[in-house]
Amino acid sequence: MRILVVEDDKKIASFIRKGLEQSGYAVDHVIDGEEALQMAQTNPYDAAVVDIMLPRMDGLSFIEELRRRNISTPVIILSAKRTVDDRIRGLKAGGDDYLTKPFSFSELLVRIHALLRRTSMSPSAVKLTAGDLSMDLVTREVRRGDAQIELQPREFSLLEFFLRNKGAVLSKTVIMEHVWDYHFDPQTNVVDVLVSRLRSKVDRGFDRKLIHTIRGVGYVLKDTE
Amino acid sequence: MRLAFVFSILFIFSFLVLFGITYVMLSSSLRRDDRELIRMKLLELWTHYQLGGILNMRRSIISGSGAASERLFFIRITDRTNTSKFLYLSEQRQEIAPAQLEKAFTEKSGKPFRLKLNGDRVFLETASVLLFDGNILQIGINVSPRVLLLSRLRITFAFCMIPLVLLSFVTGSLIAARSLKPIAGLNSTVRSIIATGDISSRISARGRGDELDDLVILFNRMLERIEVLVRGMRSALDSVAHDLRTPMTRLRGSAELALRTSKQAGDYREALQDCLEESELILKMLNTLMDITEAETGAMKLNMSEVNLKSLITECVDVYRFVSEEKEISLEVSSLPDVSVYADASRIRQAVLNLVDNAIKYTPQKGRVGIDAQEVEHTVKIRVSDNGIGIAEDEQQQIFNRLYRSPHTRSTRGLGLGLSFVHAIVRAHGGEIQVESEPGKGSSFTIILPRKPILTHAQNLTKL
User: Fold this and answer.
1) Contact check, Cβ <8 Å, A184/B353
2) Per-residue pLDDT reduced to its tens digit, B65-113
3) Exposure winner among A181, B3, B57, B395, fewest CB in 10 A?
4) How many CA atoms lie within 13 A of B250 on its CB side?
5) Residue B315: closest C-alpha in chain A
């Protein structure tokens, strides 16, 4: 999996690059739109992370140019502008997702996963697993070892989200957005409560815990220690 | 200046037209009189001639019958070859050579013409009639008085024009200055605003209710709106600067402390986690402050649509189901009316979520939080009530202020922005929020929204 990162801020670029490389991706980094366009035309990338404010050719023009040349590489837009209009403009230009700065790396990773999944669409995935935990998306049956686990719809949806992003740290905002489908920063620990309920059903009584808390960042489901 | 010019041109033009009409009417009336006179005279002479030939006619001339005989300049009888058979000239003009007259007369037959007599100019108007014996009777009358009068009139007018032009220009300038006075006021106000950046100045309207007053009022409204926006931005900036300092200090503190004292990886880890949490908090505050400012200043874009109240509240309750269970708070939703309200669904949802969040936060274990909604006339009311700690009366108005945190709850986690956010959103929808509370017994917050689209906060501002 090869990802193109187009970002002119060195620090941000290096933290995206390091993070992606640690997660097992190959990364190419360029700092302006024209160079990005050349790279994208010569290499088949699986995804691109593009900042809007770029020297020479800005991010939106780059994406438009890309789409005009029928290159359908999924693109995540990074921007410091957070209004709905900006988001819409980005998606209209041909972006697939939009992330506002400052963002957490885990959120970027989750979104990249989602994009890659969307493009490489494996419809056979009716069953998700992690260690001895399995989830059947058709019968909606969840098992850990031999025991069957009863989950409420929200808990099911959260667990599915975890399993689809195995190993990735999910921030509270991402979870909130995915499970309830809207942006809201609850002051009360809505997400913590949901995660702890799921955890009590999935991990209680098992030596090997699957769901872990990463303080200050979010939660992660790992099937290896 | 241009306006003054136009004014004076108009003034002069209308004066010219007026004069022209007067002149034409006067001259044509005078000419008609002269023609009448000439016709009468001709008829009279013709009658005398017919009755008694030249002699009879001559007699009548000498006897001076006829009112205007003193204006009669010459009488001539000529045959077809234009040879004079009889010529009479009025006494004063005996010096004219008949040949001179004849020549002029044949050249300009029928038209008024001009004769130069000893440097004096005489204007004549002539007419002729065919006599029974084949001779022609010609007469000419002196029309000099008329011509003189008209020429004097023209000269007088020309002299009048000079002061008139000046006068019209002065009047024009005065009128222009007078009608442009509010615009001049507008100009100087705008100039002073540009120069000083002080947008609190206003232009005074003259109170006549004309278009210029409308312009002034509109301009003032625009200033008003800009002022609200700027004030909102400034105060938001102030609060951001002030209130981000605290979490920033904590963030800095954690990092500094770790660098200065820690020796073990675990300590660094702890510090970094603190930093992340603080930065998360800073971001949240920033976003919420921006939202509040946008909503308060009317810059928030609302995606208005028909929103079903029942499903909206059900969604909100669903988010807090687990949390309330955890805290053993009973989250009660009474029967909701199946009505829709014209609003921005996601914003109203955020408002309700905030209220529920607060209610749960400030209600002790095994407490009760209730949500109900009802339709009252043209409004819908969404009420979130609890039997929690309540709010003291003197604090009830302050709770909607940005960053206000009650001294009783300051230790609880929170930004102090929730209620002002709700307040701003509800106001942006043209609604209001009410609070009833008794310390120790609980609080109830009611969002009142207009059902039908009415002017939003932003539009209200422009309507001021």
Assistant:
1) yes
2) 544 466 777 787 877 777 777 777 766 555 566 666 666 666 555 555 6
3) A181
4) 14
5) A180
